[in-house]
Amino acid sequence: MSNLDRKPAPTACGREAAIGPVRDLLAARQVRLGESTVVRRLLPNLGRRMVGAWCFVDHYGPDDIADEPGMQVPPHPHMGLQTVSWLHQGEVLHRDSLGSLQTVRPYELGLMTSGRAISHSEESPRPHARYLHGAQLWVALPDPHRHTAPAFEHHPDLPVVTAPGLRATVILGTLDTATSPGTAYTPLVGADLALAEGASPRLPVLPDFEYAVLAMAGRIDVDGVPVEPGSMLYLGCGRTALPLRAHTDGAVLLLGGAPFEERLVMWWNFVARTGEEIAEARRDWERGSRFGEVRGYDGLRLPAPDLPATPLKARGRER
């Protein structure tokens, strides 16, 4: 998925995380994506740029798209990151410049590693299911791997951790004793936690990871804080267990990881270390080099927005 903002602001990202446990409720920003999809952008957020290596989080739906085209995101470039597609309802058809053509369905992992450069499109198939509900996430690649060869992975079967009233699907990284088959380049975790009404599990977590929880559905308290669907609770570091309580059937996404040790510049659909790298990537996309071609999408590719007038600089994470 893309950042379709025509005037994207540079995003300063860096290493600082809350030293101990916190409970910061993050409000979403409404962003139009493509022709008919509106998403709730949780990361980057005012004062909170990353959670571990997770650097971008959009939540969308549930949307009734029975009489709509649904998701229609034209070909666009990525650099220096991984995209994670995660659905609760609907389907997304992924095409990329490697020649990948894959329909991603609910509770399947679509993982694209951009490395040095890739381009892709995402669209609701025709015909498509009535409802579309999911999340799109980015993971920043660490310096030793950010120029790796681009790749796309599709994993329809993912490991599951269970407890009374809890079914946790491990999307990326490791939770408890279960590890996702998806390729990860930093210590992190992404997991879909489905809870039954009345469940109150204590989820084991790592004290040296920072965590956040994105509410997907239902009425669920996270560490005593009610988290409404479409909002995110940042939890900081220092926990060994995370208490959850479900007032109804529902689900949340757990995102966590070791605080990212590098300073980044995020602009449009690129993650880099310098403004010069961003400018070079934009030039390459505009002149049709480096990022390849997405074949089969019925429409034009996205043009790159103008660079901001002020220089793009990498900075530490600021609250």
UniProtKB/TrEMBL annotation:
InterPro entries for the chain: Pirin, Pirin_C_dom, Pirin_N_dom, RmlC-like_jellyroll, RmlC_Cupin_sf
Cofactor note: Binds 1 Fe cation per subunit.
Classification via Pfam families: Pirin, Pirin_C
Alphabetized UniProt keyword annotations: Iron, Metal-binding
Cofactor: Fe cation
Record's keyword annotation contains Lyase: no
GO molecular function, one term: metal ion binding
Domain Pirin C-terminal: 191-291
Residues annotated as binding Fe cation: H76, H78, H120, E122
Keyword flag Acyltransferase: no
Superkingdom of origin: Bacteria
Residue span(s) of domain Pirin N-terminal: 43-139
Protein family (similarity comment): Belongs to the pirin family.
Protein name: Pirin
Organism: Streptomyces rubellomurinus (strain ATCC 31215)
